[in-house]
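#onboarding

Welcome to the new folks! Below is a worked example of what a typical request in this channel looks like: someone posts a single protein sequence, and someone else replies with the predicted structure as tokens. Don't worry about understanding the tokens yet, we'll cover that in week two.

Example request:
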Amino acid sequence: MSFNIDLKELAVRESERVEWKENGDDINIVKEIVKTISAFANDISNFGGGYVVCGAKEIKDEYGFPKVQYTGLSANKLKEIEGKVTQHCRDYVHPALSPLVDERENPENNSTKILVFIVLASPDAHVYRDGQTSTYYVRISRETREARNGILTQLLIKKQKIEYFDKRTNNAATEADIDVLVFRDSIQEMGLIFPEKSLEDYLSDREQIAELVSPLFVRTHLDGILRPRNFTLLMFGKKTSITSKFPEAYTILSIYKGTDRSEPTAERYILTGTIVEQAKRSIELLNTQAYTAFDKTSSKPNQVKYPMRALQEAVINAIVHRDYEVPEPIRITVFADRVEIKSPGTLHWGVDKEKFLQGKASPKWRNQSFAYLFNKLQLAQSEGQGIPTIIRTMREEGCPEPIFEIEPESLTCILPAHPRHQIIRELQEIQDKVILQKYQEAKTQVLTLLEKDLYNFRSLDLYCEVIAKLKLPNELYNFLETKKLDFYLVNPSTLINIAEILAFDKDNIKYQTLANRALSVAMSGKIEEGQIAKAVVNLKKIGEPEDVIKFASESMLKYPNLAHNSTLLEKRATAKMDMAKKCIDAGRDRNSNPKTKARAWEMCRQLLEEAERDLNLALENAENPNEKFFIENDINFLNRMKNISRKPSNK
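Example response:
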């Protein structure tokens, strides 16, 4: 029989479907070929079968990529290999296999041929028996492997040789292993209890608690004892019974402060009991990680670190769809920047991997009873919406896309934190370095953050704080000029900090000009009450007295509670005293006409009266002894100025 096989096409196909063998005369190579044929027939990956090509081998090209080299087989060698392999498939594989055989011309040498065994997917599970062992083989990636543990169970379930795990009878347990109170509370919560039925009606091998759920028990034929199904025990069993019958059916939840497991300390919780209790406790613990970060500069000021809905769906998926025959617990690990939820057992064999990663796969249940009952408890959705919900809610919250790592015996869902929370973590690290006086390290780290987001107000504030500690106004000035920072996009409080640092160097005109501009922009925006006093102090250093008086007065009108702020009153008073000093100079100026001098002395006395009222009120409201000391000095100086204004010189 001739088949339409294109060797060039086979050479570029997925390695899961093609196995290349240079020869096949050695008995060990024949065994390898037959094991691979049985693996293709078992078709656990649902590819439909595969090809074993003899007379060719995989090599690497000059770039290191796989390449097929056709060595070819002579006519005698070809018949010998074909005979040995087909005979071995009949004698050592059960049920026996008869792969289709095709001969192809060698594309690189017309004197030899290529032998191709075509293996179709079989409805049976084929076992290889060599007289000593019986082994099921499957194809995983480019390798033929023994089917063990969960993979073997998956294969047998697919071929319908055994019941699904959740519906299987647990012959090691009895009615005594069920917690009747847990069962009663659970079915009440599910809305599955009816007045006309007693609990004993449900705890039997006859009644179903729901239409799509098998009876909770099975009565054995030999001794007539009621044995619970696996789902009955895991959903409603006593804690000690679950632990003894399923020692790996628990959840480990660990919380690390950093981004890996190298942290010296961590929180660790071992969650046991029914899988419903484990699910609820896991969600409760993770709820503390879904806290909100506030950013008043953002269009969405309240931002959760992780969407709680995504965390819940990921946890429920891990518990409901895990492979309970893989001897590993569920592991939930919380890091500073992500949550990893690792579930034993790989992707269900009926689910398309690419569609799964896109959230478009059709629903397939490894444990249908768990899925149905968790849905009744309103803990899960039963229509394959879990993964799409995780992807959608992460996207809606602005979080990075979830990551799904699919391994041969596990599936891990990774939920990255919202970027705002990742920045918060770094900012906390920088703040800690400032506290520990590691200023250079803090400066380097905060500059890295500013490269990513120049207008993050917290990063700018921390940078200003570090620069202030290091007393480097020149570095701040160069940073502002190089980055061309738009002051109108910066928080007023941050601009006040910038002005304060630049004011360190009072003799540098460039610094004072830039500081004055920063303050001007800050005061044109909305300044918080707590920042107003600080703004007035800086304005007093670099601005004109008239500017200080105007800003302080307007602030007191806008915020009536500031009318008794001692700092504001003191700075406004000293600004008026500065203006009064100018009036004294004008009154003493011999070149001024008499009317100008008279007006100057009148203004001086008026300003000093206003300043005196401000200082007395400031002294009355001052709480700090040092502040009172400076205000008293101001009052003494004001009194000397008043004496001068009462006896103006007419010279």
